[in-house]
User: Fold these one by one.
Assistant:
Number 1:
Amino acid sequence: MINTTRRNLLRGGALITAGLATGRAMANGPDPLITEPQDWAIYTGDGVDATPYGMPIEYEGGVIRRNVPWLTADTISSINFTPIHALDGTITPQGCAFERHHSGAIALRKEDYRLMVNGLVETPSVFSYFDLERFPRETHVYFCECAANTGMEWAGAQLNGAQFTHGMIHNMEYVGVPLRTLLFEVGADISLKNWVYVEGADASSNGRSIPMEKALQDCLIAFKANGEGLRMEHGYPVRLVVPGWEGNMWVKWLRRIEVIDRAVESREETSKYTDVLEDGTARKWTWVMDAKSVITSPSPQSPISHGTGSLVISGLAWSGHGKITRVDVSTDGGKNWTIARLDKQGDRKALTRFYLDMEWDGGEMLLQSRAIDETNYVQPTKSQLRQLRGENSIYHNNCIQTWYVNEQGQAENVEVS
Ligand SMILES: Nc1nc2c(c(=O)[nH]1)N[C@H]1C(S)=C(S)[C@@H](COP(=O)(O)O)O[C@H]1N2
Ligand SMILES: [Mo]
């Protein structure tokens, strides 16, 4: 008996579909992987000292960040993309999480790290890394999405892969000290008309103004991600986490927090990261990332690699306003919708994994997903978003994405009207 895969057991042990992998193996005669002893079962493997710090096995070598060379002038002030088409679950490993730098990633030792808190405070203070470690800590999972994620798609279906259309996002478990703890420590004037201006130690400094209400609510001064120190490219040793708000505000290599009575209106919050409307005016203070979702598989870089029958459709949904409560999936370009299965009830301001377990008849599909969050906000179509915002926008594009899947199972980025 070699038909012991779960699928066959579920169906009473009978081989029912020639398209199933086990069916094909049977048809071609005995499978040497089953009938012959294999080297890996005969010889011993690597010792425990071979990889003191592990890397993905070489067969996963394609699960890597990629960039789009024509998108930016150089790699110092640039972006690369998370391979979301090849990941599952919700946590993004730091080693393949997208990076966005305005002046390159810097190497800053914990010993050389200083965080100044000044401005409208009773005791202007400078904290070392080791000082920060002595405040009570919290652990939270949050997504970080660059406001430019999906930005190229305003103009029409552009980039052929979920990694490139939606990969400016990562989702990590952070350990850190609430920003409010430090504000209380220095005796900050926390009146709600005040702001905090935060900046990084890199050459760009990436300064941003954050309203006091948000600073007191859930911002974290984070020093661990997914259990270990932040990677250099994500702001080692300390970054600011601004849950649900655009990635640009998540200042890396955080060096200064100034309590101030007005917004600074820095470059990053005026000429950048704002959306120019049809009439030439710009939307101001568009911090929250609205509900959004994308099917990660099948997708252009992750085609259907098997025949008809059981097909797992998988994707990600998130909302800067809180929890994802429902995700719908359409296989016909938005005419009919089926409620997808959420892997677990969504965490606040974190990625939620959804699945639709279906039978594929081998026909063409126009795959879409639509996220709904706890505020009952429904992810808009591209035309709904264009009606509101016109065609000039780049940032804050949370529209429904469409993948065309052909009869061979290959997928392509398309737009449906
Ligand atoms: N100091 C500093 N912080 C920064 C940036 C930067 O260039 N310098 N880039 C910002 C932008 S635009 C984004 S989208 C996020 C990206 O975080 P990541 O590189 O960990 O993905 O960091 C933000 N924080
Ligand atoms: Mo960004």
Number 2:
Amino acid sequence: MPFTVAEHIRSIAPYVPGKPLEELEREYGIADSVKLASNENPLGPSPKAVAAIGEALGRLHRYPDGSAFALTRKLARRLQVGPEQIVLGNGSDEILGMLSRVLLGPGDEAVMPRPSFLMYEISVRSSGAVPVFVPLKDLAIDLDRVADAVGERTRVVFLCNPNNPTGSVIDQKRMSDFLSALPEGIVVVLDEAYIEFVRDPAAARGLALMDIGRPLVTLRTFSKAYGLAGLRVGYAVMPAELAQLLHRVRMPFNVSSLAQAGALAALDDQAFLNKTLRQVHKGIDDLFEALAERDIACFPTQANFFLIEVKKSADAVFEEMLKKGVIVRSMSAYGYPTYIRVNAGADEENRRLIHALEQVL
Ligand SMILES: *Cc1c(COP(=O)(O)O)cnc(C)c1O
């Protein structure tokens, strides 16, 4: 049955997510595998969030609070911004979509590093706009080249800090110089999905740059450090004028009542956040030590994941590792055909990763 679809939609390459654990186990006939491919929390979800979701179940016949009053207020107090500056999403992915719908139309340009998070490109193309890619330099975002790529038609710049998939960070001073030198009217989206894991005190933080006189959007998520990837809730802090426009295109009940309840409770679960950070930092340090002992090259990271250079086909390494019950991410789709990405897991998962890698390499 023929139907007509705009070319800018037809040309979108589908996002390839890490496959769910259950699906891979079924496909490969394995059990008891460990998944270190999607940067998920090795400790599971925040227990306080799980309890709060349980309590909210009895009210599922009600529509959610479309304004997410309580969660928005709590975030605003926590982040010391106004509630009118906050927009919540069904994952921060959804907020990327809203930003593209509001800010981009056919022919407009959005500058983004490559490789970086694949959803920037997809959301930009969905608006009929044109992604302009800036290659990384030494696996890090090169702000000079990003600035050079900004032109007459640029409306948005996407930056990912720490950058997925490399784990590199932008320095606060460099970031502030970049923003000050940017032509007026361009919105910078700073994706801080992994900011909680950052240990470098010099790393840029969007919330500290809100007063710089450029429209800045700081994007955060409950999916990683709070262990709530399956719940789908993220948020962004931006100038109130821009937030108002996002609310116009936002679906009225985009954050479910369970997501609101879970996120509210997670914000009060400082113990879980601390425990997560301790486990992830220990995991990263243990893995780096074990890889160095085996002369396997990996790249410094400020996130809960990092790149390993496998010096042969990453797709083949992915398959081999999978047969040993360890799920990693091949970076071939990101343009690094001999690199894999792994995230820090629980101690036992990390040991299994090293053991499997040793055998495969
Ligand atoms: C995981 C991730 C997100 C978070 O997406 P959600 O939709 O909030 O789960 C955003 N940006 C990057 C770079 C990520 O890796």
